[in-house]
Amino acid sequence: MEQLSLPAFPYKIRETEGKTFILDLVRRKYVRLTPEEWVRQHVLHYLHRHLGYPYTLMGVERGTRYNTLQKRTDICLFTSEGTPFILVECKAPEVPITAATVQQAVIYNKTVKAPYLMVSNGKQHFCWQVNSNSSALTPLEQLPAFGS
User: Fold this and answer.
1) What kind and span of H or E run contains 44?
2) How far is C-alpha 76 from the chain's CA centre?
3) What does the H/E/C string look like for 56-71?
4) Using CA atoms, how far apart are residues 81 and 11, in angstroms rounded to an integer?
């Protein structure tokens, strides 16, 4: 897999029937290793090991509904009370982060209503604080650490 600009971590991989799987510590199972999954696992590790968020407050690929469409959020971090706190949209490393990518995350967040948003392709990462009244995005250098 491709080198990313996120910290490396000790991952576990296994091969089954010619396909590669990586251990997802949030879902507690091996999942198919795709370029997007490689990014997602790096982001999960970063959120846990470097920002202090417990795996128990993370949701991966959970369903959400926007208008009549069923969508899946890549990563959603929750508060201890179960309220969405950070919504993360992951893309494969070769997918550029464009206005359309950010718009996808913003649309998902209209349903989720997380006060923080992140978009990453593993090489570029963008974070924002979301104004709950206007949905305006304020750029951030990084996401807040757990408990801050």
Assistant:
1) helix 35-45
2) 6
3) HHEEEEEEEEECCEEE
4) 30
Distance, in Å, from the CA atom of 63 to the CA atom of 70, rounded to the nearest integer, reads 7
Q: Which residues contact 144 (CB under 8 A, 6 or more apart)?
A: 51, 116
pLDDT at residue number 10: 94
Are the beta carbons of 105 and 91 closer than 8 angstroms? no
CB 109 within 8 A of CB 86: no
Report pLDDT for 23.
Answer: 97
Measured between alpha carbons, how far is 24 from 46 in angstroms, rounded to an integer? 13
Place of tokens 């090991």: 49
pTM of the model: 0.91
Buried b (16+ CB within 10 A) or exposed e, 19-32: eebbebbbeeeebe
Mean pLDDT to the nearest integer, 98-107 = 91
CA distance 12 to 142: 27
Lowest mean pLDDT among 14-18, 22-26, 60-64, 85-89: 60-64
